[in-house]
Amino acid sequence: MKIRAIFIAALFVSFLVCVDNARAQGHVIRGKVRNAAGVTMARISITLERNGAMVDQTVTNNEGDFTFSGLTDTGYTVVVAATDYLPVSTSVEFVRATASEQPGETRTVEITLTAKVGVRPPRPGLSFVQDIPPPALAAFESGLKLAREKRDAEAIAAYENALKIFPDYFNARFVLANELARQGKFVEAIKHLEEARRVNPKDDRVYDLFARMMMQQRKYAVAARIYAEAARLNAAEPQYQLSEATALVEQASTIDQTKSPTDAEQRLFALTEAEKILTQLSRQDGKLADVHLQLARVYEKKGERARAAEELEQYLRKAPTAKNAEAVRQAIKSLKKQ
């Protein structure tokens, strides 16, 4: 009984301490940040604002958690900015302003980040966390803010400053490579992307960005091989296989099979490999309408027009409101006439 009494007394003392701290610290906002796949997001910048002005700033821990304390007003906005994700703003309201005779309130927010179009978020189960020096993190976060304001040159300078402080900063390398690629500066982008790959060779997004640059430069055979590596690293992402097949179809389109038997063999090989990937993908994921669009291209190039028309019809069944729907209908009519 004596031990139980001591235990209860300890709990009571802890409770009083918590109340006193609440009075002293004011309101508290606790939160957790995840992506759409449910993966907790570490080292993500969180800004606390009031009436558009920054009140405080922090980053999430390795479990995606963050805390703001000592708050005295009734309304705040939590702003989350993360590489490759759309920014998120969440309003947090308290009943009243804090006062000496009243304890502060606690609010908990759950934030889900959505990846930007064309960008792959880290896959579930893949966690890569770095211990970033605060000056490097500050420079990187400044770059993100400048990028949101469309001040691209200043953003790039901020990323480069972060890398001067911490050369192995993966996110800074990757974001900088993405920005340089967007501007068409492929040589510089590839240098930073290779450094990012050296630091974290298991992140499929590095290969995805590299392959997209190769596609823009019409280096389709190289892009196909890189997409294959991305698919190996992240088999759960069907878009990589679709992109690999698309690259192979584009490669076949650049080969003149009438030049030599070797050219004809290379063209047929590219089309056959693309057909294998697409056929398997259509069995695994029936929701990808573009699989049928690419299969139609394969069959059309192989002279199998009836099969090409069938694939286009399946494409329209899955994507009846697609922007290219009318063009696809015309293509079906043309293929059937031929």
Q: Which percent range describes the beta-strand content?
A: 5-15%
How many beta strands in the DSSP annotation?
7
The strand order across the widest sheet is 3-2-5-6
Q: What is the name of the CATH topology of one domain? A: Immunoglobulin-like
Query: Could you say what the CATH architecture of one domain is?
Result: Sandwich
Low-confidence stretches: 1-24
Radius of gyration in whole Å, from Cα? 27 Å
CATH class of one domain: Mainly Beta
CATH superfamily of one domain: Immunoglobulins
User: Helical proportion?
Assistant: 55-70%
Strand and helix map with partners:
Layout: H1 2-25, E1 27-35, E2 45-50, E3 53-59, E4 65-71, E5 75-81, E6 88-93, E7 106-113, H2 134-148, H3 152-165, H4 170-182, H5 186-199, H6 204-216, H7 220-233, H8 238-253, H9 261-284, H10 290-301, H11 305-318, H12 325-337
Helix pairs in contact: 2-3, 3-4, 4-5, 5-6, 6-7, 7-8, 8-9, 8-10, 9-10, 10-11, 11-12
How does this model look, in words?
It is a single chain. A hairpin with a 6-residue loop joins β5 and β6 (88-93). The protein has a domain at 20-113: Immunoglobulins (Immunoglobulin-like, Sandwich), CATH 2.60.40. The longest helix has 24 residues, at 2-25. α8 (238-253) packs parallel to α10 (290-301) and α10 (290-301) runs antiparallel to α11 (305-318). The protein has a four-stranded antiparallel β-sheet with strand order 3-2-5-6. A three-stranded mixed β-sheet has the order 4-1-7, covered by helices on one side. The protein has 338 residues and is an alpha+beta fold. Helix content is 55%, strand content 15%. The chain has helices at 2-25, 134-148, 152-165, 170-182, 186-199, 204-216, 220-233, 238-253, 261-284, 290-301, 305-318, 325-337, and strands spanning 27-35, 45-50, 53-59, 65-71, 75-81, 88-93, 106-113. It is elongated and about 80 Å long. The model is unreliable at 1-24 (pLDDT under 50).
